[in-house]
Input
Amino acid sequence: MNTEIENIHLRARKIVDAMSLHEKIAQVTGIWKHAEEFLNQEKYIDHEKLSQKFPYGFGQIGRIFEGLSAQEMAKKYNEIQRYCVEKTRLGIPVLFHEECLRGVMEVDALSFPHPIALAASFNTDLVEQTYSYIAKDARSRGARLALTPVLDIARDPRWGRVEETFGEDPVLVARMATAAVKGLQGTNNDMLPQDKVMATLKHFAAHGSPEGGMNCAPPGISERDFKEICLYPFAYTIRHAKPKAIMPSYNEIEGVPSHANQHVLQTILRKELGFEGFVVSDYYSIEQLHELHFVAKHLKDAAIQALEAGVDIELPEPNCYAHLFAICSENAKYQALLDAAVCRLIYYKIYAGLFDSPYVDESLAHTTSEDAPGVELSYSIAAESAILLTNKHGILPLSLQKYATIAVIGPNADYNSIGGYACANKDFVTIYKGITEKWGAHTNILYAKGCGITTDEGSWFTNEVCRTSEEEDRVLLAEAVKIASQSDLIILCVGGNEQTCREAWNINHLGDRPSLELVGLQMELFEKLYELGKPIVVVLSHGRPLVVSALQERASAILDCWYLGQETGSVVADILSGVINPSGKLAISYPRSAGHIPVFYNHKPSARRGYLFDDVTPLFPFGFGLSYTNFELSNICCSASSSLSTPYCSISLTIQNTGTYAGAEVVQVYVRDVVSSVTRPVKELKAFTKVFIQPGESRDITLELHREDFEMFNRNMQRVVEAGDFEILIGTSSNNTDLQVYTHTVEE
Output
């Protein structure tokens, strides 16, 4: 242990030794809605009520100033912090946390693409830059902890939280999460840099494989899949980025909810994975041990189980850990567990600089959605995140001089498709606005909504979800067909919104679906427009894979945008017109129907034998994405060590841009264990790199595989490399037709 870290430990221990039981309990509880006890609707702080209600301060505070500007937030933050530092007995500062999934979750913050889109960029450098910007924004407002990134492996597209993830592949998720953590925290493990925030990995673990695709349901996976698939991103990110916080998942694992699971949080997380940070509860999850899972008799019992499991702090409110005074008074062993939790929390408050520099410079907080460098970064990462799925007859990029009149149609054409865990963004560029601003000077642009999706303008926060009126939608549809008939080209903007795919955080706030079909009259709108006989370019905005087989068959082109952030319209216009060459690759496979689920590419050999009267393959596979140019891989050479102790493999190749547009290609390397003691996936992504190349240019690149890329859990659940043949598959998607196969032999 280095001297600086040791000094922080000693300092934390000294503070904990001076604390009363009440003061310790204050440090392991959070405040959110309870802030209403000292805040009015205008966010005015009543200091008298504050001192009466919370005389010992707080452990953490989360998003109590939502709706305020950055500068107002910083000012209010300092006011609360001044109370904790100057008015409580020991002056222990409070830690503010923020939701930072795709930007700070505040009204004036800049909006980047959602993680499922960010992952499609396959550009870890740009992802790190994105989260570095988010960290600076969050820190300027007072936060020093971000409740992100999400490391769940999205294996069921019916699940409403797919949009929050980096996709279906553990290696891609691990690399993206590591980049996100480095962007948020930096790499100084002695002290948090002044423009950084601590990162929280979530949700530990197996949250992305729920039965029936329903949020919080038990994961339908084996112990081997749990260790090899679900734990891998956490293990990799902990090892390479050293995140400071972990959030357990809402679900259960082998019958034990994660927030009460000592095996998961102690044996696996701390002993096996070497996690040294602190564990924060997911919102209201400790009380769910009693109210949802029924493994606790009452909230007091829930608090005991969570504390024993190793949950250091209850978020967002002190609903269960408020019982710790009685619990610790009755049994001294819980006092020791509480002390250990408080010591970790105080340590990371010191590490975050809260004791030495608790306040923020209010002049540095500003409206980031208008910040020029941030807007440019948002545009850049969005430009690399959009995926071209089909492009028949090379219709894209559009030759705008061919189309005197273009109709922009659809419910998402002039809609702020911002996604979940986001606030309304006044600087959002809709697709219609972006196209009009870019092309309007020389092209006649028409617009029609065509139909709706849901009422309430798609609010992510509203509990009840209602489809729009079919009667009213048919009027809109008829108007759209009439307007489109006057055009030479149709750009159809369909998909989902923040209500059709979202976190189902309660039984009255649902977001998972048994169907992946387009909601409402969207497909009928496409059919009626298709009958006009005009070319149709489909632009998708959504949070989960959708069933788009009919669009794939008949549309002239499909551009998949997921949620691209506030620069959506500008990026879409520039991609369609050829200013940007799309380079995104799918981070999750598209099924042909909901009946084709599961559809993830890294399945077992016996899992996809075929369907009667239907194709078993995905409509669009993981890693797939088209370009306006062509790339050719050649001179592929695998240089390898055949030793069982060091099964190293270096892959060199030449990639050439053989087309006429500058562009980028993602070279992907998969591995398949040909014969093994237990069944292995048909292929697994192990390495990738994104290469930018000018027309006619060639680049020589090298990718490396190491021991962990050949490891597996054998029949005794030991992590080993087995001797034998391994196929090394090299190409541009997980589709077999896009891969070249080489054999690497590992000898005894």
About this structure: The radius of gyration is 26 Å.
